[in-house]
Amino acid sequence: MKEIEDILKSENIKYNEPMSKHTSFKVGGPAEIFTYIDSISDLKKVLDLCKEKKLPITIVGNGSNLLVSDEGIKGVVIKYTANEIKIDRKNGKVVCSGGVINSVLAMQLKESELSGFEFAASIPGTIAGAIYMNAGAFGSEMKDIVNYVKYIDISTGEMITLHNNKLEFGYRKSIFEKINGVIVETEMQLHHDDKANIENKMIQYKEKRLESQPLEYPSAGSTFKRGEDFISAKLIDEAGLKGYTIGGAQVSTKHAGFIVNTGNATAKDILELIEYVKKVVYDKFNKKLEIEVKII
To answer: Would you say 191 and 114 are in contact if contact means Cβ atoms under 8 Å apart?
Structure first.
């Protein structure tokens, strides 16, 4: 598409790009136009172009909580990759772009002896993705540390700032599920600690993940949300579904809350398995499972 090529470098545009290359599930059909955008000015130009041409827009992060259909995605897929990090060690604050990878930020904060982000060090995604779903682990969540978020409203092109009390953070959700926008920046409040203590926490959390989660297989992390009065993985296990397989998709034998790609799964396999698990759990326990994964 000529107009988009006038805005972005050719290496930042891919046509009919398999989304299996951009999701941790390693499944998904082709994106009609896949773009990497690393600046707010280019992002605004592309959004304006899409609006003018009436092209559908899909925003993705690192694809670690995403299931894309085998049919793929029409229109323009935007991966915002800006990765600026500004650390104010004295005041315990960090301002970073939405495209920053969690593990990269965690390492820089460790070097600056700022604590509070260790829980997210092993979450395989971007800061924007972590905010979008209020990512959490080991008793901490993004809502505990985010001061404000800046995003661009896709329909107006306006940059908007929302402070923590306006972000509607809840269990694995935020206001961004309802907003048509691109998260471009956040400020977080952390606290000082010794580098050794921070490193020990990160190692400890990583070891716990390795012990309990099926990280040897492609997945989107925990597939189902925790219920209000039940633990989803426990009910799936008690329903005898560990190891249950449809095509290349399997309920993990290590952690029943995970659906994994054993090697040749399609998105259809995964979706059918999700629906089967939901049905069996509802029939056996009269509990409705909610998925944590975003489906496109």
So the answer is: yes
- Tell me if residue 209 is catalytic: no
For residue 73, the model assigns a pLDDT of 98
Considering 219, 222, 232, 252, which one is annotated as catalytic? Answer: 222
155 is annotated as an active-site residue? no
Q: Please check whether residue 68 is in contact with residue 136, taking contact to mean a CB–CB distance below 8 angstroms.
A: no
Domains: count for the chain: 3
- Among left, alpha and beta (phi > 0; psi -120 to 50; other), residue 156 is alpha
Q: Which amino acid is at 225?
A: K
Mean pLDDT of the chain: 96
Catalytic site residue 115?
no
Assess whether 146 and 253 both reside in one domain. Answer: no
> What Cα–Cα distance (Å) separates residue 205 from each residue in 124, 129, 202, 225, 243?
13, 20, 5, 20, 26
Catalytic residue among 172, 174, 185, 252: 172
pLDDT tens digits for range 213-222: 999 999 999 9
> What does DSSP assign to residue 39?
S
Nearest to 36 by CA among 103, 102, 83: 83
Query: What is the span of the domain harbouring residue 96?
Result: 85-212
Q: Could you give the CA distance from residue 42 to residue 29 in angstroms, rounded to a whole number?
A: 26
Mean pLDDT for the stretch of residues 109-124: 95
In a domain, 218, yes or no: no
**Token pair belonging to 165:** 């009390």
Q: What is the spatial distance between Cα 43 and Cα 154, in angstroms, rounded to a whole number?
A: 10
Pick the catalytic residue: 118, 141, 185, 292?
A: 292
Query: What pLDDT does 177 receive?
Result: 93
Task: Give tens-digit pLDDT for 119-164.
Answer: 999 998 999 999 999 999 999 999 999 999 999 999 999 999 999 9
